[in-house]
């Protein structure tokens, strides 16, 4: 029996003893003192699977306690989850979708700091969307974040929206959106809301973070007026991870009113950057708590097990097996990447994206090539691999494609079809559709979720660069094709690999100054007129900025979170 399995067996015995001696304070105190002594002896920095989201609950599943745990976990029905991949380069791997929900109405107690359900703050969105990729064969973990403002075709059952809007229709819709638009299979789902997050942090005794500058966020409530290593409770930690309108007081700032302090740009991406740092801090804290010794963690597990929600298909046995596989793997060594995006603001819509007449605010669009490169890095696969199945992508000659002009630009569909034909795709028709707005994604639509058709769509997506994404919609597929491309305002059909000849004029609509990597250097793209401001693709990893909270330096003195001066 391994040391981990012995620990699980010991936990089961401890749980049985605790059930028969419940209410005996002397026993609890003795157990606590023993735990403290054990923790001092065992200050090993053992790894944490995914920090606060899974490990504490997984460890408790062994040694005859599985049945009780299975009936005490919070469960939610999620349809469309994939089984573990059994063939190809991804055999045995799993992707766990981890979501932070903004639902105020689901809170046990309403909190004015979050907005009150009774006052109409009833939105349900996903503040945080992370995918944990686990590979038991290589003992490797990786985390991929998806920005909440990313505009995608299948965000909701009725069509395009920001991806965070999918959770309003339930986790089944969010899972479907990620699988349909990114080709990422999802095996399991974990969710927590504001209160649950704060409870988990409090169960760990809070966390310490260094604040290099005084920072303020009027929306999340963050208001730390200190330049020190600060101890944060659950509510204060939540203010850190939710901050996306952060303002900071630099050395040159003279105003005492935080509303006049500098405000960071790219708020959505900045929050992900800080969330990744917080996850590292929390993982380190959990390792110091002694998670290597299940008995000492019994109280912790009992405190947080009701604060997480799992999909109905994730058995306790599978959870235990997963933690045994990755017990010694540190989350700090796992890559934490973010899907690259291009931020879009359309002045024609008053600084917001106008799509089919609706105002969606500032949004982010996908960036093909960079996005697929990030997914490949997380999955550990090559560019010719179908990410849904791990099998090789089909040859272009096996894929039938039609093209629809989605912008009204002259000859765009015909030129795009010619460029795809030059890559070997079998083009079967061209046409026109009504433009959706001043700026639009290029969407590769497919009408069947069979592996062959999904793979065909991914093969076409991988032949393009720029603002390009997949989308499932049988009503959009025309001319009997497997796939229909609806052209947008900024994209390039990649040239044949063995030729330096550029695609036909008009097949590309990316301005020459911002052509995506992979486009031929001989290409002279045309531009679809647009008033939108579109930034270059964001990086997959971002360094902390001087004002960002971070891990405290080893040995740094820790101060309680200061009582902030009231903000006018």
Please describe what this structure looks like.
The protein is of the alpha/beta class and 568 residues long. Helix content is 26%, strand content 21%. The strands form 8 sheets. It has a 7-stranded mixed β-sheet, sandwiched between helices. The protein has a 5-stranded mixed β-sheet with strand order 20-19-24-21-23. A 3-stranded mixed β-sheet has the order 8-11-27. Helix 6 packs across helix 7. The longest helix is centred in the middle third of the chain and has 22 residues. It is globular and about 70 Å long.
Produce a short descriptive summary:
With 568 residues, the chain is α/β, with parallel strands linked by helices.
- What can be said about the biggest beta sheet? 7 strands, mixed
Shape call: globular
Helix-residue proportion: 25-40%
List how many beta strands DSSP finds.
27
Query: Which percent range describes the beta-strand content?
Result: 15-25%
Distance between the termini: 62 Å
* Uncertain runs: 1-5, 11-16, 18-28, 33-67, 102-107, 119-124, 499-526
> Mean pLDDT, nearest integer?
78
Strand ordering within the main sheet: 1-13-7-2-3-4-14
Class per helix and strand makeup: alpha/beta
Contiguous helical run count: 13
Task: Describe the oligomeric state of these chains in a short phrase.
Answer: single chain
- Over all CA atoms, what is the radius of gyration? 25 Å
């Amino acid at each position: 029996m391994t040391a981990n399995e012995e620990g699980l067996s010991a936990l089961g015995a401890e749980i049985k003893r605790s059930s028969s001696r419940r209410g005996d304070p002397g026993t609890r105190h003795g157990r606590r003192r023993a735990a403290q002594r054990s923790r001092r002896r065992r200050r090993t920095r053992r790894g944490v699977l995914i920090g606060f989201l899974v490990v504490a609950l997984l460890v408790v599943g062994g040694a005859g306690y599985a049945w009780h745990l299975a009936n005490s976990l919070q469960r939610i029905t999620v349809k469309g989850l994939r089984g573990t991949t059994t063939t190809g380069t991804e055999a045995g791997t799993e992707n766990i979708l981890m979501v932070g929900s903004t639902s105020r109405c689901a809170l046990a107690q309403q909190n004015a700091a979050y907005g009150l359900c009774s006052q109409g703050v009833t939105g349900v969105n996903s503040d945080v969307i992370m995918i944990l990729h686990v590979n038991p064969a290589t003992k490797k973990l990786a985390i991929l974040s998806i920005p909440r403002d990313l505009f995608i075709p299948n965000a909701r059952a009725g069509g395009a929206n920001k991806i965070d809007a999918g959770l309003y229709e339930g986790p089944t819709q969010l899972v479907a959106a990620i699988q349909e638009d990114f080709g990422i299979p999802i095996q399991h789902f974990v969710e927590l809301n504001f209160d649950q997050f704060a409870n988990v942090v409090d169960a760990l005794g809070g966390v310490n973070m260094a604040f290099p500058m005084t920072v303020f966020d009027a929306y999340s409530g963050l208001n730390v007026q200190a330049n020190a290593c600060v101890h944060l409770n659950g509510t204060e930690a939540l203010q850190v991870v939710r901050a996306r309108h952060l303002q900071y007081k630099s050395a040159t700032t003279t105003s005492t009113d935080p509303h006049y302090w500098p405000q960071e740009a790219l708020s959505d991406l900045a929050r992900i950057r800080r969330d990744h740092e917080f996850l590292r801090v929390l993982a380190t804290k959990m390792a110091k708590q002694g998670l290597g010794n299940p008995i000492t963690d019994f109280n912790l597990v009992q405190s947080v097990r009701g604060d997480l929600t799992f999909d109905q298909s994730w058995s306790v046995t599978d959870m235990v097996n997963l933690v045994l596989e990755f017990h010694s793997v540190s989350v700090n060594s796992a890559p934490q990447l973010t899907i690259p995006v291009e931020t879009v603001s359309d002045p024609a819509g008053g600084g917001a994206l106008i799509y089919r007449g609706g105002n969606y605010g500032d949004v982010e669009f996908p960036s093909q090539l960079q996005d697929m490169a990030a997914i490949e890095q997380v999955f550990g696969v090559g560019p010719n691999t179908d990410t849904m199945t791990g099998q090789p992508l089909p040859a272009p000659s096996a894929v039938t494609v039609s093209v629809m002009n989605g912008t009204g630009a002259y000859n765009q569909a015909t030129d795009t079809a010619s460029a795809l034909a030059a890559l070997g795709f079998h083009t079967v028709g061209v046409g026109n559709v009504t433009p959706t707005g001043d700026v639009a994604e290029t969407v590769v639509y497919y009408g069947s979720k069979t592996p062959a058709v999904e793979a065909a769509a991914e093969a076409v997506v991988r032949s393009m660069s720029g603002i390009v994404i997949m989308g499932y919609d049988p009503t959009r597929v025309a001319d009997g094709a497997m796939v229909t491309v609806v052209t947008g305002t900024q994209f390039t059909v990649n040239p044949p690999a063995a030729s330096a000849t550029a695609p036909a004029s008009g097949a590309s609509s990316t301005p020459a100054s911002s052509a995506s990597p992979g486009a031929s250097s001989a290409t002279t793209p045309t531009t679809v007129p647009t008033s939108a401001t579109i930034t270059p693709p964001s990086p997959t990893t971002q360094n902390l900025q001087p004002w960002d909270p971070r891990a405290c330096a080893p040995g740094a003195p820790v101060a309680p979170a200061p009582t902030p001066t009231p903000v006018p």
